[in-house]
Write a structure and sequence with these properties.
single chain, 286 residues, mainly alpha, 11 helices, disordered N terminus, disordered C terminus
Length: 286
């Protein structure tokens, strides 16, 4: 018989697990490389290593997981969104670029994210995607335009898999320039970028707050969530708690969804979280 390991309400498929040991929905989820909670709700889909992931697919899988948890088909239909393709491609890039910090991938995802983004946008690299501030779009375009694929003999970044030193430096620039350097390391900066991307996607109306909040709060980072890391990091715990309440309290869902949207409006790309650190004794008004 195969082996399933329960960790913080997650059932993770190990190499020895047989899909025959699971129910049909669980089997489909696990064969796709997904995570399934003990209540049958999909938590995240950590795709196979090195695979480029589209947010449209992740959001669809989350919504499908809600169906397994009792959401009706009509309710699921009302939660679907259709973002502009350019915005989807932009957000896809940041999702894949930062996933190493979120806790679902490795550094190999960054070079692939750059390659896929350049191939998708072509001559529109410097055109801002819908509702993305021009300075944010320019930062991404400037960094990605300097990306070069690995060539034989290029030095690799020690301890970071098959990513070159030059590619790692570009990733570092992306995370610090978009997420700010608060002295807490590259992973925390990347989590801030991820948080900004997801909150902007929610506040701009390109993902339903229940689906987007589920993904926004699902950060299994090695980064400690301290006040010094800024609100883009510390808010993740708040969103995760709201998402869990949304799942367990159907009657409260409209209020929770509005609360998630309200939180998203306080973050996103138009709220700079890289300025002077707030003193721990001062209240967080954001």
């Amino acid at each position: 018989m195969g082996l399933c390991r329960l960790r913080k309400m997650r059932v993770v498929l190990l190499d020895t697990t047989s899909a025959d040991d699971c129910t049909a929905p669980q089997r489909d989820c696990l064969l796709e490389g997904g995570d399934l909670a003990s209540d049958g709700v999909v938590r995240r889909f950590p795709q196979y290593a090195g695979m480029h992931v589209q947010l449209e697919d992740v959001e669809g899988r989350v919504l499908e997981g809600f169906l397994y948890g009792g959401l009706t088909l009509a309710e699921a239909d009302r939660m679907r969104r259709m973002p502009p393709v350019h915005r989807d491609v932009f957000d896809d890039f940041l999702y894949n670029a930062t996933i190493v910090a979120v806790g679902e991938g490795d550094w190999a995802r960054f070079p692939r994210a750059c390659t896929m983004y350049l191939a998708a946008v072509g001559g529109d690299l410097h055109r801002p995607p819908p509702l993305i501030p021009p300075d944010v779009a320019a930062t991404v375009a400037n960094i990605v335009s300097q990306y070069r694929q690995r060539k034989p003999g290029d030095p690799l970044r020690p301890g970071s898999g098959r990513i070159t030193e030059a590619q790692y430096q570009l990733a570092q620039r992306l995370f610090y320039e978009l997420g700010g350097d608060r002295g807490d390391g590259i992973y925390a900066a990347a989590v801030r970028v991820y948080s900004k991307m997801m909150s902007a996607r929610i506040s701009d109306g390109f993902v339903h707050p229940a689906v987007g909040g589920h993904m926004w709060g699902d950060v299994r980072s090695r980064t400690p969530r301290t006040p010094d890391s800024g609100r883009d990091v510390t808010i993740v715990h708040t969103i995760a708690a709201l998402s869990e309440t949304w799942r367990t309290s159907p009657a409260d869902r409209p209020v929770i969804e509005r609360t998630i949207v309200d939180h998203a409006h306080t973050r996103g790309w138009r709220n700079d979280d890289s300025g002077p650190l707030q003193h721990p004794s001062e209240p967080d008004t954001n």
